């Protein structure tokens, strides 16, 4: 069995490499047509997907998944139509492949070009939601990459049904079916074996909880781009007008608390604290938020609990917020750089020096000035669908679209030049 | 001792992070001035460096290093002047930091900017040549990164002398001395400990032999950009004129055989082989090159030995070349993608369809059309000094300059926007 798994991991990688080499030679039009065929087939075959999804739902109920998890797993005609629509939207994006990023002539007549090309083979390891399967496949195909998708065991049957539809559409479009391979086993031992296929897999993107991501980083010989969830902050500067602070803080915390770009800690400059902590704190409590404050916060706000060191590190993903009064902008920056997850952090201020200083000093992928952290999102930036929000600094940082699934090659053209 | 080493690894990383945070706030002018101060001090303190280098040379002779290695290790006034000149050249490059890579307005009035910033902390693990110490320090400082440099034990005393000079210059320029830290122990156990400081080191660049690089990849929790040496090819297409093929092949193989962008295998299209293998093969042999050929090559060229499977994988870095006759351009591409190291590969052809097909299909960081592989180099491309030639596909591919030691952050500016 272990030998079988090893062979399976290797064959996934080898087949993906072959498919990736063919994809690198396709035109944008061919990939566009294949994406439309996939979108169309998802709609046409919705009943088959729903039937497969029903098996996952039965298993999920037996395994006593929470109502929230069941909801994320469930597919109906409306959700499948949305999946198809997302694939169509990816198809309609401009083709990232083939762009001449830059180019120039050298004195010896050589023409130097930096040309955008697909990365090759991308493996994505993710949990739960079956719509990730079609989204990830579409983004990889758009950017000319073969992909290996390893979804969660909860959505296994749904994923297999989606896999069959995608493979069919690829074949009908004249593209290799191995351009999109969805792992057909739930055996957890496959993942470490995949992570050793460094000859034939170029990039691994883990999407899910922190323990999944840490395990992938620990085991992988292949470069990994991490998508940690966000411990995001809003810092309210000394002279910030109350309306500005209030609307940003409340939106960042309350508009959708369960997602990675929601705020988890609010920092108030001490000169703003007397004015703003009581009013904004009360609004938060009225909105159903549990407030955990530093000692100075507790003096200004009744109904808050004491925050401890652990709170500053915590992504609640819930209606809970940590609040701290800081001495200065510098202390706010230090707090964010120490406790934060380098995802998204905001400042509320009308002082341009403070804004510039905050933007330069906060070591995060997304820095917001006078707007909600909730805007940290590929769609909100106008990038189209995203494969996730990178919390890494290399290759891609922040929202990652199809263009971030490309690399470049140097093309040097001459007519017999040699080096002296 | 092991506990001491652990503490040392951690303190290197923590101090580098602090220095990196300060560097992120410096102006290009401050970093420029510091680089000029370092260049000036290297010249002024040449005697101290030469004295330290003498200790390394004594140890090297005791350890029976080869003459070539001794030569690479030796520093004299001329070589130190070159090191200083290289630092000055890096200083004179445009500042990569602060560029607005792109930006736009959203319908809701938010301004989105993708702004180039330093990566943070870069660790470079390298061997032998002491000039890498000042080159790497200069490129990291230019791009606003703190660096941790771990050189080879052979150049330990030289590196320590260079370290003292750089630290002094940084202090006098008002920059943190920990912006450039050179590891002060030769204990090999330090490297794996450094590779676990993922909280405070953002990137590792190993430069050296394949076994060093593999060990780093295996142990690192930090993203690694690999710089493997090159198994480079020249493919001579069916109708290629003899002069073009000859000048490119001879230059690629013979001009400097010991470096990574020299050619190791020559592939001839079968329709060109009768015309070109005897003539070019003879010229190679006359130039002192040992030729190892496939069966078809041996029939066309006397004086060649038989190549075996291992030869196709080998980077000789010497006056040896493997020669194979292939059926088609497609077979040449397949050979290169299978046996090559994705570094630099060339085609010689006047047929634009063949050139385009080769450029698209060869999965290498540098693809040359009608010119020598030896041009694969940051200086030859006009990029200035390079930290190396990446054989990876993520973040940076091919010659890596100061600009490749940066990342970006998204800066989103508004006036109270919230998400609905």
What key phrases describe this protein's structure?
420 residues; Aldehyde Dehydrogenase, Chain A, domain 1; Aldehyde Dehydrogenase, Chain A, domain 2; 21% strand; homodimer; globular; alpha/beta; 16 strands; four-stranded parallel sheet; seven-stranded parallel sheet
Query: What level of helicity do the residues of chain A show?
Result: 40-55%
Based on CA atoms alone, the radius of gyration of chain A comes out at 24 Å
CATH uppermost class of the largest domain in chain A: Alpha Beta
Subunit arrangement of the protein: homodimer
Query: Largest beta sheet of chain A: what is the strand line-up?
Result: 10-9-11-8-7-12-13
Give me the CATH superfamily of the largest domain in chain A: Aldehyde Dehydrogenase, Chain A, domain 1
Q: What is the mean predicted local confidence, pLDDT of chain A?
A: 95
List the total number of helices of chain A.
16
Major sheet summary line of chain A: 7 strands, parallel
Runs of chain A with pLDDT <50, length 5+? none
Whole-number total of structural domains of chain A: 2
């Amino acid at each position: 069995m272990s030998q079988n798994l090893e062979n399976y991991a290797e064959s996934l990688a080898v087949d993906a490499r072959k498919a990736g080499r063919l994809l690198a030679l396709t035109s944008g039009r061919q990939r566009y047509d294949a994406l439309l065929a996939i979108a169309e087939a998802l709609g046409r075959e919705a009943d088959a997907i729903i039937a497969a999804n029903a098996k996952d739902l039965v298993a999920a109920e037996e395994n006593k998944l929470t109502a929230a998890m069941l909801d994320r797993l469930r597919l109906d005609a409306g959700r499948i139509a949305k999946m198809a629509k997302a694939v169509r939207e990816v198809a309609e994006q401009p083709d990232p492949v083939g762009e001449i990023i830059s180019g120039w002539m050298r004195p010896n007549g050589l023409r130097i070009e930096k040309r955008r090309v697909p990365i090759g083979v991308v493996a994505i390891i993710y949990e739960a939601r079956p719509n990730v399967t079609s989204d990830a496949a579409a983004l990889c195909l758009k950017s000319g990459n073969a992909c290996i998708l390893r979804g969660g065991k909860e959505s296994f049957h749904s994923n297999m049904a989606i896999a069959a539809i995608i493979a069919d559409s690829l074949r009908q479009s004249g593209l290799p079916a191995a351009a999109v391979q969805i792992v057909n086993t739930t055996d957890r031992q496959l993942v470490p074996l995949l992570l050793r296929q460094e000859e034939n897999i170029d990039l691994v993107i883990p999407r899910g909880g922190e323990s999944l991501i840490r395990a992938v980083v620990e085991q992988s010989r292949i470069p990994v781009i991490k998508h940690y969830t966000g411990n995001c902050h809003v810092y309210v500067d000394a002279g910030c007008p109350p309306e500005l602070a209030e609307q940003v803080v409340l939106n960042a915390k309350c508009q959708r608390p369960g997602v990675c770009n929601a705020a988890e800690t609010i920092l108030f400059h001490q000169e703003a604290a007397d004015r703003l902590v009581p009013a904004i704190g009360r609004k938060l409590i009225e909105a159903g938020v549990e407030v955990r404050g530093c000692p100075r916060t507790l003096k200004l706000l009744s109904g808050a609990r004491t925050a401890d060191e652990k709170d500053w590190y915590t992504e609640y993903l819930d209606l809970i917020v940590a609040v701290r009064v800081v001495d200065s902008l510098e202390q706010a920056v230090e707090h964010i750089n120490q406790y934060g997850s380098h995802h998204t952090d905001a400042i509320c201020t009308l002082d341009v020096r403070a804004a510039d200083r905050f933007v330069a000093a906060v070591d995060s992928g997304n820095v917001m000035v006078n707007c909600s952290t909730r805007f940290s999102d590929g769609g909100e930036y106008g990038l189209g669908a995203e494969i996730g929000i990178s919390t890494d600094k290399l290759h891609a940082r922040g929202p990652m679209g199809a263009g971030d699934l490309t690399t470049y090659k140097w093309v040097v053209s001459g007519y017999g030049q040699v080096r002296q």
